[in-house]
UniProtKB/TrEMBL annotation:
The keyword Electron transport does not apply. Residues 1-19 form the signal peptide. The lineage of its organism: Bacteria, Pseudomonadati, Bacteroidota, Flavobacteriia, Flavobacteriales. Pfam families: DUF2147. The keyword tRNA-binding does not apply. Keywords: Signal. This is DUF2147 domain-containing protein. It comes from Nonlabens marinus S1-08. It comes from the Bacteria. Residues 24-140 form the DUF2147 domain.
Length: 141
């Protein structure tokens, strides 16, 4: 009986580890200072994945920050509540073919994201144009 209980615990631990995906709440980290900049929620809508800013936490951010550098409909819109990742499609372990907006400069980039193979509580977020890219590391909340 004791062996069965141990086997069930091991099974559920592995099942949880392997069932994790990118959905959930993440903290974004400034790669230079290590400061937590914001909380973002990744969610699935239809067959696509999106990321919405829940809270801006950067110490140098103004109260109720707005996307002053954005263009079009996003110009001067609140960053909190803004959907910054759009239209990602799951392809194997990667989520690709979407876009990400950097609210600090208002620019939009092609985007792909994936879970760190060694730690599913770490999300790799890459914005890129052609062969130029920047990858951020986000941590699960």
């Amino acid at each position: 009986m004791k062996n069965i209980a141990i086997m069930m615990l091991v099974f559920f631990a592995f099942a949880k580890a392997y069932s994790q995906d990118v959905t959930g709440k993440w903290k974004t980290i400034d790669e230079n200072s290590g400061e937590v900049k914001s909380h973002v929620e990744i969610y699935k809508k239809g067959d696509s994945y999106y990321g919405k800013v829940l809270k801006v936490l950067a110490k140098d951010a103004p109260e109720n920050p707005k996307c002053v550098e954005c263009e079009g409909k996003l110009k001067d819109q609140p960053i909190e509540g803004m959907v910054i990742i759009k239209d990602l499609k799951k392809q194997g372990k990667m989520y690709k073919e979407g876009t990400v907006i950097d609210p600090e400069n208002g620019k939009s980039y092609d985007c792909k994201i994936w879970l760190n193979e060694d730690n599913p509580d770490v999300l790799m977020v890459r914005g890129y144009v052609l062969f130029l890219y920047r990858t951020q590391t986000w941590e699960r909340l």
